[in-house]
């Protein structure tokens, strides 16, 4: 099976390297899609991602994996695939929000964040922009981390989170297949437990 990983905001394609090695042992061919948040427009990223997905579809069955913002970009591109292009057999969303994120809205107060995050950063702080990106009609697994700090000293208060994204922002109720793991947001792409969850669903 062809697998394509799309990284999150402020991270890189190499975040998935360990799981790519694990999944290759199961016979899967892993690749990654990279983008430059500070310098690329959302339209440019979407166009390149659609072209990549189209090329994969021409080569046979494939599945896609998006971490955080990467999952948002994948949902956006998948909903705009040209007619006749085969969709992936499975979409995996790792800590990928369906709603505008509180953490990014806070960071957006900083001029440095706005510069480094570029248009991608503005996407995840906009409630209307995030609401406009739907969920493709294909088998989807939402993997949520739950190891974020809660309580008196947490910026999230009593709300469950993975240290960056609140669980409520994942909209778990929209998914038939949800996996919760005691992991923090940055660790999701490299986690062996995440790799195992992906491999088990691809076997099905």
From TrEMBL:
Transmembrane segments: none annotated. This is Alpha/beta hydrolase. Keywords: Hydrolase. The keyword Membrane does not apply. One of its GO terms (molecular function) is hydrolase activity. The keyword Hydrolase applies.
């Amino acid at each position: 099976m062809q697998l394509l990983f799309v990284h999150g905001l402020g991270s890189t394609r190499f975040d998935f390297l360990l799981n790519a090695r694990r999944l290759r042992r199961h016979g899967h061919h892993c690749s990654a899609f990279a983008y430059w948040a500070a310098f690329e427009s959302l339209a440019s990223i979407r166009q390149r991602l659609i072209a990549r997905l189209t090329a994969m579809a021409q080569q046979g069955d494939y599945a896609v994996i998006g971490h955080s913002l990467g999952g948002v970009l994948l949902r956006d591109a998948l909903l705009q695939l040209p007619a006749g292009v085969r969709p992936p057999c499975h979409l995996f969303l790792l800590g990928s929000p369906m709603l505008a994120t509180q953490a990014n809205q806070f960071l957006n107060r900083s001029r440095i964040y706005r510069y480094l995050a570029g248009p991608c950063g503005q996407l995840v702080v906009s409630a209307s922009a995030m609401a406009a990106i739907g969920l493709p009609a294909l088998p989807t697994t939402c993997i949520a981390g739950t190891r974020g700090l809660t309580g008196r000293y947490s910026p999230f208060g009593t709300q469950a989170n993975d240290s960056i994204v609140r669980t409520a922002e994942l909209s778990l109720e929209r998914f038939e297949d949800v996996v919760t793991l005691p992991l923090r947001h940055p660790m999701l792409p490299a986690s062996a437990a995440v790799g195992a969850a992906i491999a088990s669903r691809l076997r099905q």
